[in-house]
Protein 1
Amino acid sequence: MSNVKIIGSSVPNMPWQDRPANDNHDAPIWRYTNNPVIGRNPVKGIARIFNSAVVPVDGKFVGVFRAEQVNGIPYIYFGRSEDGINWDIDEEKIPFVDKDGNPAMPIYAYDPRFVKVDDTYYAIWCQDFYGAAIGMAKTTDFKTFTRIENPFLPFNRNAVLFPRKINGKFMMLSRPSDSGHTPFGDIFVSESPDMEYWGHHRHVMGKGSEWWESLKIGGGAAPIETSEGWLLFYHGVAGTCNGYVYSIGGAILDIDNPSIVKYRCENYLLTPEEWYEERGFVPNVAFPCATICDADTGRIAIYYGAADSYVAMAFTNIDDIVAYIKDHSKTNTTDTEIGIR
């Protein structure tokens, strides 16, 4: 029985692997020993799948996947799995439509998240909106994906929806950026009464003083509601003489006002070390996009993109990860203030 409670559903068949006895990493996160779970050329016409998101549904699992086609253009594809590890990816990209049912395909789309709020599933991704910006669509049957108006102006990336309304409002994290491979970025939170109009933007947190997040940060998996607050796995980026390094970090946000950071781990939770993280189309990337959690056991499975080439998994449990974040927490004024000026 966990001391920290996950506020959510039971997922008894979630993918899981116990921590190997010879794992000497400091943080209580361990990699799946059979990583990567999705390799190169997984489907005809697709060279690589990575930075993708999954959700449990009726004892099985579905997901939206960033697929780099062989022509280099990224789109969002749909996939299904019995166990959350072995995936059957559709050969055709998701056929997005507008509210009238007419085709409404983005020019390109990448880095999706997939979050259930009430009885609707929302896919959120980055796309072209006269510059890099956020695209959104909703579905209830995984057959029809209906586009929603873009929530923000360019330039923005890494939109992550909260899995329930807070104070009656939809809430979403994002990372304002520029049109290129942004060398900066803080996480903000915005709210909406109807998933159409977004405002009341608040700063959540900026880059950290530690090396692994000293350049920029961005949202990762959808926040997990717990008895300690919203558990957020995010990515931190370091600039090195040989390019960027993307690592996974952890923070806990206030349950009623998520612009307030209660705890923020100064250490990374996972950084590129394995071959599938260090070597690939873009080396040295561990980019979290989704979690599956079991409220009964406190188990958490983390899905992350590796080296812009693979989908990998890691595991933790709610008691140990929250304790580690709290024990190694280092916050500053811009973390703990409400985030409005």
Protein 2
Amino acid sequence: MKIRNFLKPMLMTLFCCGIMPSCGMAQENKQEQADQTPVPSNDGNKYVPYEQRKGNESIVYFTRNLSPEGLIKAYEQVCANIEGRTGVKLHTGEQNGPNIIPSAWVKALMQKDLPEANIIETNTYYAGDRYTTEQHRKTLEVNGWTFCPVDIIDEEDTTTLPVVGGKWFKKMSVGSHLKDYNSLVVLTHFKGHSQGGFGGSNKNIGIGCADGRIGKAWIHTTPNQDNQWDIAKEEFMERMTESTKSVVDHFGKHITYVNVMRNMSVSCDCEGVNAAPVVTPNVGILSSTDILALDQACIDLIYAMTEAEHHDIVERIETRHGLRQLSYMKELGMGNDRYILIDLDNGGRRITAAEAVKGLKPFVQK
């Protein structure tokens, strides 16, 4: 009995240290792994009205001035921490895409405020006009992105950034050149999206900085099956948002965001000339140093429109469960979903989303 009592603590120590594994322990470890398998949320098709949100408010600036001057004004409100070698993350579009931010606007902005900056892009995951670097360079020429250097950041290699607090990823694969930059300006054409429901700053970074072969595959595709777009709805939103978080954390305070609400097809600019016709009215340009507040404000402006004005894009957002982008950004601590909307056209007074979209004109393709 004494020997037995003497051995008991030794055996327990060996067992706990894994020196004496057992079938029971193996089963327990297996169960632990099963319990840790990520489960996506199921609330991505539910819009949360402003009055039901909690937490602090961030500042979002707004102008109705859809022009180079409006873009410059919006950017200059949020550029205080942009310094050093700067990248401008932009969706440069497929060849002749009709809805991208006009290159002349971006040229005016960069010549005035970012004369030493580079546009940065990555190659695509799908076969198209930007699948290889050679194809991508030709498309940049066609679309007018010739006034400054364009760095295809996954042209040479990839690197990884940590994903802090993620449930799908511990790291994300991005273009290796991303680490060459001290600051990042996220300049986004806000629109619908075939997979994401909508494409704002979150999509621009989460998909747009992930490299074309590894990072984008991690976000879009379950390994060892034929459908490269099989990951969808809430799981896709969460994976994309974790990718975004890796980039946002990497740049810290040296990152800022501008969303252009113009030519808002329900299709992404990836679809180029095949994008669905635009039926949603143009709105304006918004900017913030808070990515969640900015994307949330754009969504709130969409929902504040009349039923006729927003029917198509709201249907696209909700059927894809795109609103999960917003709630997951909040869960990951990436910003605030409450904000003060500042009207740059009227003395900087605070306005509501409803006031911002009052009296919109029907869209006319120019």
